Amino acid sequence: MFRPYAFFISGIKKFFDAFMLERFNHKLLVT
What top-level branch of life does the organism fall under (predicted)? Predict the structure, then answer.
């Protein structure tokens, strides 16, 4: 059974991971 919300959650997680990684890199650049 295909669950659309599982795909949605994975998309959110991918976006969140990319966002956190960008914040981390930015922090390294600033310091």
Answer: Bacteria
| 27/21 Cα distance (integer angstroms) | 10
- pLDDT for 10 equals 93
Is pTM beyond 0.85? Reply is: no
The residue count of the chain comes to 31
Q: What is the 3-state secondary structure (H, E, C) of 1-31?
A: CCCHHHHHHHHHHHHHHHHHHHHHHHHHHHC
